[in-house]
Amino acid sequence: MQKEKRMRKEQKALRISLVGVVFFVVLALGFAIFTKSDAILFDGIYSLISFATALLTMRVAKLAERPDDDQFHFGYTTLEPTLNLFKSLITIVVCVYAAVEATQRLLAGGTEAAYGWAVVYGCLATSGCFVVALLLRKYGRDCRSDLVNVESKAWFVDSLLSASVLLGFLFAWGLTKTEYAHWAPYVDPILLIGIILLALPIPGRIFLDSLREIIVMAPPESVVDEIGERLRPTLAVVPHELIEYRVNKRGRNTYLLVHVLVAADFKLQSIEALDDIRRESSRQMKAWNPEIVMDVLFVRDKSLIY
């Protein structure tokens, strides 16, 4: 029941993102044509890419909930980091291309734009994107969804882009009222380059985090240490010399492979008794993080661990 509730929240969050993207694509492209601003056009293209990837995200979110089958023996959750890697890579490529274009326009003498209307766009887009980003961030925490969390970060990037557009065009509009009006055309390409430099670190981090999951690297050390602190008490009933665990994050799931090196005086009562220990350990860990999947192996030969 709890899983179904989380799935409904995730799908609702992704639908909110999709509707928001459609609205802001139309808003940005309309204002870009009217104001002749490259910065607003880039904001619209960024939103258009978000629309395309949002459709994929909704599909992957449904697939990730499927159980393992003959094709995917460990389930479909690995599709999540793969999609996030793909989305971040597209964003990085678009940002680099836009930066090159803006540099060329800057060297060519800048771009004239209707700064007053650009300020109106900046106000609408900044406030709207921040609201959607905060809403998705709340949904992402509630349903523990990496897909929604990445969508939230994408909206936050979009809000930074829009805020930068707003501040830049306020400055350019002010310049047109002074004797420095001839510098105003340079604001648009400079603004676009600044936006890109501000936005690039976020998809860059998403790219690296997703790559870490795809190539089966361990999560950050702080995460692994916290898992160990919570895991050891759940196996304290077993006399042991060592508990060795390996962690792999696969999308929304966190997989634990646990080896318990039992003490010499450990007496095996029955396989069923070991199953009870495994179930209780898993229950306690899932109470902390419902997305944990774990295998617990009991060994006496230390060489079997390594």
Automatic annotation (TrEMBL):
| UniProt keywords, alphabetically | Ion transport, Iron, Iron transport, Membrane, Transmembrane, Transmembrane helix, Transport, Zinc, Zinc transport
Location, primary (coarse class): membrane
Q: Which GO terms describe its biological process?
A: intracellular zinc ion homeostasis
To which species is this protein native?
Answer: Simiduia aestuariiviva
**The protein, known as:** Cation diffusion facilitator family transporter
Family matches, as SUPFAM superfamilies: Cation efflux protein transmembrane domain-like
Q: Please state where this protein is localized.
A: Membrane
Q: Describe the location of the Cation efflux protein transmembrane domain by residue ranges.
A: 15-214
Q: Where are the transmembrane segments?
A: 12-34, 40-61, 82-100, 115-136, 156-175, 190-208
> What cellular component GO annotations does this protein have?
plasma membrane
